[in-house]
Amino acid sequence: MHDSSHYDHVVLISIDTLRSDALSAHPHPLWPHTYKNAHAVRTTLLDELARDGAYFPNTISAAPYTAASHGAIFTGQYPLHNGLHEFYNGSLRAPSVFTYGRRAGRSTILKVDFPIILGPELGFTRDVDTYLVEEDDAFIDAVAAAESTLACAHFGAVHLPYGFHNLTFGGDAYRAKVAELEEGLPQALPFVDRLVESYRGPEDTELLMRYKRVATHLHAEKQYDRLFQLYLDGVEHFLATRLTSFLERLRERVAATGKRMLLVLFADHGEEFDEQTNGHFNSMAEGVLRVPLIIAGDGVVPGTHEQRIRTVDIAPTVMELSGVPAPATGVFDGRSLAGVVRGKEAPDGDAPALAESYNAELNDFIAFQERQLSGRPPGPLPHFLVGHTAYLGDRRVVRMFRHYSDGFQRAARQDHTWVERFDDSRVPHRDPHDDGADLLAMLDDYRSALRRPEQVPFTEEIRAQLRSLGYSV
User: C-alpha dihedral over 54, 298, 235, 34, to 10 degrees?
Assistant: First the structure.
């Protein structure tokens, strides 16, 4: 085994919308309990990575949407602490893995498929030397040409339209899939949102809207199994047509330089379909929040670690494994798992975890984005808390404040709280006898970061102390 004290290249691979149990290697998949007519797909590449690396199948995301989730991953801080907790508001304020990598003299590279979300508007390009949009080969070139890197390649093709992302990567197979899905459907299909995560030409935009109309129709018809199969098929298609060749090229180029690489593969959130959830953005569903983490490279001891960890653990783990100097104690909300990855210590057990979902009214968001994309000042975009969850031991509490209806166009107020317990296979079951008071207290403590500080009363005692220091008060 090689000394793992130094990796020339630290490459993060983010697969947007990949739920943990989409991998065939997952020890206790949740989806077969829910989608009885769906079937597993081939995930050979991910299964091999999980077998050869340190595999964490029970990683809890801090948020069910791309921006806040990636902010937590890159900073090791929960969203309320790093400045980016809403769906599309705020900016990443905390230092990130790119900050620390650049300080250590590494070239920092970020390639994204969703530039509108993971771009400069929300602070993701700070401390990034090379920023690329949908340029897989350019990312590989940049890594191979650098002396050392801290780099991340984000892929959006598991996200709807499942497996294709756009015409550049999907081509005629994408056109054929949309036409196939539309066969036999009514002429008048439901309203769909017009939100986009990347810049698209007219045909690309039309294809995406057509795909969304099909998905919205299937959800309205409660064809959840078919939707989930479309999602799983998209995972397989993405792996076969894009990620497998990408990783092969990356590994070959790095190996040719004689450099060593640490590979860290993860997801930001998963996907779910039921009466409450159509995808992920508004959901605290376990299938949405539970994502995979795989770490591979020299010095990594292969093993599957089923204990619960958090996506905020990724940044401190990467810093320690890569030898990049870590920030002062207390900066990270997460904990380093480097000792577990190296086989030098056992996992501590299930970590406590938190997640929240914020959103805006859909029509407000659509109008905001249309103004933004047209070059006009987009103006404010008010957000609200949809729901949140806290994990402790074998329990979690879920509290939802909004219920979506009318094709997920409207979010009505509600206040619905329940507690779930996880069985030996990590499957959650509701516990009607548990009020979750200790778990709700965790959420209250976390949310105190949002509260405005109370003004300190200016008492006579304070006046006297200031006078003694020479102030006139």
Answer: -10
Mind listing the pLDDT tens digit for each residue in 43-63? Answer: 999 999 999 999 999 999 999
Residue with tokens 């004290």: 5
Q: Which residues contact 36 (CB under 8 A, 6 or more apart)?
A: 225
Q: Phi/psi class of residue 210: alpha, beta or left (left: φ > 0; alpha: ψ in -120 to 50)? A: alpha
Q: Where are the domains of the chain?
A: 9-159+225-348, 354-447
User: Which residues on adjacent β-strands are paired with residue 404?
Assistant: 411
153 CB-near residues (< 8 Å, 6+ apart) = 11, 12, 13, 14, 111, 136, 139, 246
CA distance 70 to 315: 11
215, 226, 216, 288: which is closest to 36 by C-alpha? Answer: 226
Bridge partners (DSSP) of residue 294 are 55, 265
CA–CA separation, 28 and 48 (whole Å): 17
For the cut 80, the answer to whether the pLDDT of residue 193 exceeds it is no
Most confident of 96-100, 187-191, 463-467: 96-100
Cβ count near 201 (within 10 Å) = 10
Say whether pLDDT at 151 is over 70: yes
Q: Which tokens hold the place of 438?
A: 């200790």
pTM: 0.93
Q: What is the CATH number of domain 9-159+225-348?
A: 3.40.720.10
From CA 193, how far away is CA 355, in angstroms rounded?
Answer: 25
